[in-house]
């Protein structure tokens, strides 16, 4: 933290102490009420000046002003205990305080003007710099060397599949629709957003439109406007300045956009995370016909218009990507069509999963392919072997800060439901009302919207108005298999007796060994997911309750069960079932 920010913070704190003291003592005593009213009026005049000084981050003379206000606060506090015989003495001191605050007012006003003048000088320097840049670019354009059509735009992978249609649709929205200045390209992590954005920038029609005014900026989780503007300065071919604060960076960006508004201009803001709305506002504040912004994000940013949702790969494109990833450069690697189809069924069109699995099997013997498929059939997760895929997906959950813990809990609960099934919103309303006390159904729907705009689930709203019974009876939720695996993977990280959610997948007639063992302490799991036939369902539930693995009045999700109706012996469990 800079000395300036410390000084401004101390001044702001001292001012607030004095203001609160004046307000409190004025209410407690009538002896100095009129004089304290004058001081309060002076403080009201001072407040905007202090805010102005804070904006410029100035430190000149702040220590003196801070001391004056701290002494003033101490004096005012003493006035609340003054007797009548001391009134004259403290009246004189309060008059001196009021005069001192007037001097502070005059000094801060003068300093604010001085800082503003310095800012204007800096802005003029920016304008001068732009003039030099323009002259420099004109000189370069007159030279015989060919000027590149884009700056700092990374090349897409040599082989891309399934992006031709999305590319055409992006061009239609950004290039043809004059009403669209910013378009958010959204999907979950590992779905190809950045690859599509790179492909968009390298498209010949796009390059012909924007020429050398295409800027590709990786924003990431912690955006730094200073660095972004610094990079733009460099890309324009001029020595970048050192910004003292973000205020100056914003002004430089504004000047940049004003200067470039007569030329087609494209910004690609890549990998923008939730919470970066203020950054998007700074880029989107100017509206002119040939200025376009493409944002890639896992977050939909709905207030910036209708986003473009990037779809997953269809079967044909998924297989093409897998064959490319699993084959050596000389095309000699073995690829079994039957095993490839089973692997594609597991990846379900998720580009990053397909590429990573294919790469891991490249050059491997047939038995390794067979082993991978066999492990998956026995309940192993694709996330157990592909750590890069896990890290990519896990980062979406890590981004849910403490204020979004409820959304994270709701996401993890969705992993208890069957894959490739619609989950009725009414079911979730009932379940989460019991688990989390979300008695109002709109709270559940709001959480589902929160998951949807973060690309962690998909809420399908079939009707805009609610049914007469108050439930969203026709709405439903879907979740991709890969996200369900993420939820399950997250749920099983804790020891069994500490898990909030238990997922039991049973194949055949035998229960999992860990379930029949009685070495675990009683668990407080509140959600139980069972995938089994009716023969084992009674046995499974009995074992679960016997070993105390589910808390009282827990919830159970029963998958793939046949003909199971009587749950009378398990009255403490609220059941949600699917006929498989």
UniProtKB/TrEMBL annotation:
Keyword terms, alphabetized: Plant defense, Repeat
Taxon lineage: Eukaryota, Viridiplantae, Streptophyta, Embryophyta, Tracheophyta
RPW8 domain segment(s): 1-146
Domain of life: Eukaryota
Segments crossing the lipid bilayer: none
Gene Ontology molecular function: ADP binding
GO biological process: defense response
Protein family according to the UniProt entry: Belongs to the disease resistance NB-LRR family.
Name by which UniProt lists this protein: RPW8 domain-containing protein
């Amino acid at each position: 933290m800079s000395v300036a920010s410390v000084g401004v913070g101390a001044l702001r704190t001292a001012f607030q102490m004095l203001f609160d003291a004046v307000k409190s003592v004025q209410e407690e005593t009538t002896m100095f009420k009129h004089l304290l009213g004058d001081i309060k009026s002076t403080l009201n005049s001072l407040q905007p000046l202090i805010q102005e000084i804070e904006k410029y981050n100035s430190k000149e003379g702040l220590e003196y002003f801070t001391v004056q206000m701290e002494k003033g606060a101490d004096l005012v506090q003493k006035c609340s205990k003054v007797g009548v015989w001391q009134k004259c003495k403290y009246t004189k001191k309060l008059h001196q305080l009021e005069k001192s605050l007037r001097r502070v007012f005059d000094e801060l006003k003068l300093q604010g003007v001085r800082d503003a003048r310095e800012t204007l000088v800096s802005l003029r320097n920016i304008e001068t710099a732009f003039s030099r840049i323009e002259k420099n670019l004109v000189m370069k354009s007159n030279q015989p060397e060919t000027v590149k059509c884009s700056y700092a735009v990374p090349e897409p992978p040599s082989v891309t599949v399934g992006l031709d249609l999305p590319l055409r649709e992006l061009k239609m929205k950004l290039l043809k629709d004059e009403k669209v200045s910013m378009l958010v390209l959204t999907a979950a992590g590992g779905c190809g957003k950045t690859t599509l954005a790179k492909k968009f920038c390298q498209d010949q029609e796009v390059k012909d439109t924007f020429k050398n005014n295409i800027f590709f900026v990786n924003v990431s989780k912690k955006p730094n406007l200073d660095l972004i503007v610094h990079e733009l300065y460099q890309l324009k071919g001029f020595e970048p300045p050192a910004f003292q604060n973000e205020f100056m960076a914003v002004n430089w960006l504004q000047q940049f956009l004003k200067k470039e508004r007569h030329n087609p201009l494209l910004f690609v803001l890549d990998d923008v995370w939730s919470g970066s709305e203020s950054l998007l506002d700074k880029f989107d504040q100017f509206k002119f016909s040939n200025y376009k912004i493409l944002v890639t994000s896992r977050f939909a940013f709905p207030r910036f218009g209708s986003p473009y949702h990037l779809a997953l790969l269809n079967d044909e494109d998924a297989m093409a990507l897998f064959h490319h990833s699993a084959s050596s450069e000389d095309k000699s690697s073995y690829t079994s069509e039957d095993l490839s189809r089973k692997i594609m069924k597991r990846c379900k069109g998720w580009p990053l999963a397909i590429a990573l699995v294919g790469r891991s099997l490249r050059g491997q013997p047939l038995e390794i392919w067979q082993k991978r498929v066999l492990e998956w059939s026995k309940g192993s997760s694709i996330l157990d072997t592909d750590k890069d895929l896990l890290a990519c997906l896990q980062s979406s959950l890590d981004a849910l800060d403490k204020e979004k813990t409820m959304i994270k809990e709701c996401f993890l609960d969705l992993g208890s439901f069957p894959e490739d099934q619609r989950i009725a919103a009414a079911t979730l309303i009932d379940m989460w009302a019991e688990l989390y006390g979300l008695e109002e159904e709109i709270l559940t729907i709001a959480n589902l919207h929160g998951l949807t705009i973060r690309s962690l689930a998909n809420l399908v709203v079939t009707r805009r108005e609610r049914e007469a019974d108050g439930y969203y009876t026709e709405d439903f939720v879907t979740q991709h298999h890969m996200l369900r695996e993420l939820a399950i993977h997250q749920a099983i990280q804790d020891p069994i007796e500490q898990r909030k959610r238990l997922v039991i997948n049973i194949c055949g007639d035998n229960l999992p060994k860990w379930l029949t063992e009685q070495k675990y302490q009683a668990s407080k799991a509140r959600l139980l997911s069972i995938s089994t036939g009716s023969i084992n369902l009674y046995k499974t539930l009995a074992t679960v309750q016997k070993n105390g693995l589910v808390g009282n009045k827990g919830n159970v999700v029963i998958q793939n069960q046949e003909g199971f109706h009587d749950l009378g012996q398990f009255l403490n469990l609220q059941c949600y079932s699917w006929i498989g």
